[in-house]
């Protein structure tokens, strides 16, 4: 059980969250006084190729403790802001049960800290379903911006409907396919491509993103946000959206990915400038056992920090 500030447990989240052995960035802050929140979701029960993303929250925390917190994009030093690490959600093996627990825990945390931005560290991509469901229970018109090499739109994968390869299919079925926009996709099965086209899901492949340039990609994302009436944006960043040259330690690497500068510029400007609220985002699919020199964990930490910086810059503008 988690005790915040030495007090008694205050909600359902306290029953299922375990304090991490180290804190994001190496600094502990009281959640009530923090500007930003971090929550770990160490889960990889449906990983099909290179498991190990359950170790990612710890690895990303350690990486964050050893990189600089100044954002050149924002002109902001995040060391001037308090980041509270809430620890890790203790998740059951069953993906359906894990989804339900994440929904319960994140709903409780949204209710407890309604004005704070929370980052969720995966874990495999299946964790997004439970977190997005929690958001949808508490806000109006949520939508999902996904940076990913894959569609994750299979009806099922290896007889599992709640697989990391099916998570976006479940979200599309529950909340509407128009609520999803992809950046960086380049690897998918025929059934996924047909589903995306039939349901008119918007996506920009990695090669198209390079041809269009960051300005046009950002413009298309902003037009989508306005067209569907999105009031609350959830950003989900699968680390395999980056090219394996920059992020080798992922569960399912795919060649021809995006360069870090491009993806970070796009996400930063959307978060900072789009006419939409941001309460939650996740960074998923880092697999430390396959990470050469820990560079993927460092990039994951940097990615999280740039989203935080964009959020702070937006509030200051």
UniProtKB/TrEMBL annotation:
Protein's UniProt keywords contain Manganese: yes
Gene3D superfamilies: Ureohydrolase domain
Residue ranges that the Swiss-Prot or TrEMBL entry lists as coiled coil: none
UniProt record, GO biological process: putrescine biosynthetic process from arginine, via agmatine
Entry keywords, A to Z: Hydrolase, Manganese, Metal-binding
Cofactor note text: Binds 2 manganese ions per subunit.
One Gene Ontology molecular-function label: metal ion binding
Cofactor(s) for this UniProt protein: Mn(2+)
Family the entry assigns: Belongs to the arginase family. Agmatinase subfamily.
This protein's name: Agmatinase
Naturally occurring in which organism (per UniProt): Pyrodictium delaneyi
């Amino acid at each position: 059980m988690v005790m915040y500030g030495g007090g008694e447990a205050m909600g359902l989240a306290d029953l299922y969250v375990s304090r991490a052995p180290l804190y994001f960035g190496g600094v502990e802050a009281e959640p009530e006084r923090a500007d930003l929140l971090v929550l770990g979701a160490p889960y990889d029960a449906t990983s099909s190729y290179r498991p190990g993303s359950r170790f990612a929250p710890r690895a990303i925390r350690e990486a964050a403790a050893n990189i600089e917190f100044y954002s050149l994009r924002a002109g902001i030093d995040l060391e001037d802001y308090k980041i509270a690490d809430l620890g890790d959600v203790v998740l059951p093996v069953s993906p359906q049960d894990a989804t339900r627990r994440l929904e319960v825990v994140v709903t409780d945390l949204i209710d407890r800290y309604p004005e704070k931005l929370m980052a969720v560290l995966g874990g495999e991509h299946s964790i997004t379903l439970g977190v997005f469901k929690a958001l949808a229970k508490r806000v109006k018109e949520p939508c999902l911006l996904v940076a990913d090499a894959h569609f994750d739109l299979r009806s099922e994968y290896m007889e599992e409907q709640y697989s990391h390869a099916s998570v976006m299919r479940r979200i599309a079925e529950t909340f509407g396919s128009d609520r999803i926009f992809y950046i960086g996709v380049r690897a998918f099965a025929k059934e996924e491509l047909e589903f995306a086209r039939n349901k008119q899901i918007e996506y920009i492949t990695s090669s198209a993103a390079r041809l269009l340039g960051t300005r046009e990609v950002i413009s298309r994302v902003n037009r989508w946000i306005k067209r569907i009436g999105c009031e609350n944006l959830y950003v989900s960043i699968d680390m395999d959206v980056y090219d394996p040259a920059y992020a080798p330690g992922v569960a399912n690497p795919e060649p021809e990915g995006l360069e870090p500068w491009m993806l970070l510029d796009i996400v930063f400007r959307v978060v900072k400038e789009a006419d939409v609220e941001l309460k939650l985002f996740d960074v998923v699919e880092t697999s430390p056992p396959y990470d050469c020199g820990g560079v993927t964990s460092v990039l994951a930490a940097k990615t999280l920090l740039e989203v935080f910086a964009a959020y702070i810059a937006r509030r200051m503008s």
